């Protein structure tokens, strides 16, 4: 059960969403969109929740400012055909990096995903890329496409996977970090 709350503090109001759950502790977090969420045990008094939010006001405002500074708005989504073209081009740009290692060009599938940029179905010979990726810069599309292609060589995220990424795309960590800003 969620309830929108507004706490008046000496330095101004703070709004948050109160969630009663089967938890032991009060859990305060800030979503990527800046929404403040507070999960509390079922029998926790509202006054206690409000006191926590009031006490953490500075931390909340700093966190919301960081979210605004670090998140980049995505441009409007392209139509499905443009999306397919952009993601197929990314796949074709990075495939030569793994082709010599025995990775055949996989089938590309598109899907709107909430929590992943892509996934690899190495047994079936295809990869799925998130349609939202078409709205990101080319270098980030290339990173995700290569990431999925490397899974044909290393099926998990073990040391071999990351060693391969280091060799094939030396700046992959920076690209991954940049991609998080588009979360």
Structural class: alpha/beta
The number of distinct β-strands equals: 7
Strand content: 15-25%
Helix content: 40-55%
Give the key terms.
183 residues, alpha/beta, four-stranded mixed β-sheet, three-stranded mixed β-sheet, 6 helices
Could you provide a short overview of the structure?
The chain has six helices and seven strands. The chain is α/β, with parallel strands linked by helices and 183 residues long.
Q: Could you characterize the architecture of this molecule?
A:
This protein has a four-stranded mixed sheet with strand order 1-2-4-3. It has a three-stranded mixed sheet with strand order 5-7-6, covered by helices on one side. The protein is α/β, with parallel strands linked by helices and about 180 residues long. It is built from six helices and seven strands. It is about 40% helix and about 25% strand. The longest helix is centred in the middle third of the chain and has 20 residues, at about 80-100. Strand 6 (about 120) and strand 7 (about 125-130) form a beta hairpin.
């Amino acid at each position: 059960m969620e309830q929108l709350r507004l706490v008046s503090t000496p330095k101004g109001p703070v709004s948050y969403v109160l969630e009663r759950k089967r938890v032991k502790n009060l859990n305060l977090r800030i979503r990527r969109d800046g929404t403040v969420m507070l999960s509390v045990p079922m029998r926790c008094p509202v006054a206690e929740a409000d006191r926590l939010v009031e006490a953490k006001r500075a931390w909340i405002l700093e966190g919301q400012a960081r979210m605004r500074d670090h998140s980049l708005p995505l441009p409007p989504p392209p139509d499905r055909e443009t999306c397919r073209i952009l993601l197929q081009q990314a796949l074709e740009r990075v495939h030569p990096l793994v082709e010599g290692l025995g990775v055949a060009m996989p089938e590309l599938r598109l899907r709107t995903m909430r929590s992943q940029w892509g996934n690899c179905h190495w047994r079936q010979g295809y990869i799925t890329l998130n349609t939202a990726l078409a709205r990101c810069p080319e270098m980030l599309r290339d990173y995700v496409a290569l990431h999925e292609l490397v899974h044909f060589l290393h099926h998990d995220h073990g040391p071999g996977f990351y060693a391969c990424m280091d060799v094939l795309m030396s700046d992959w960590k920076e690209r991954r970090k940049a991609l998080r800003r588009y979360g």
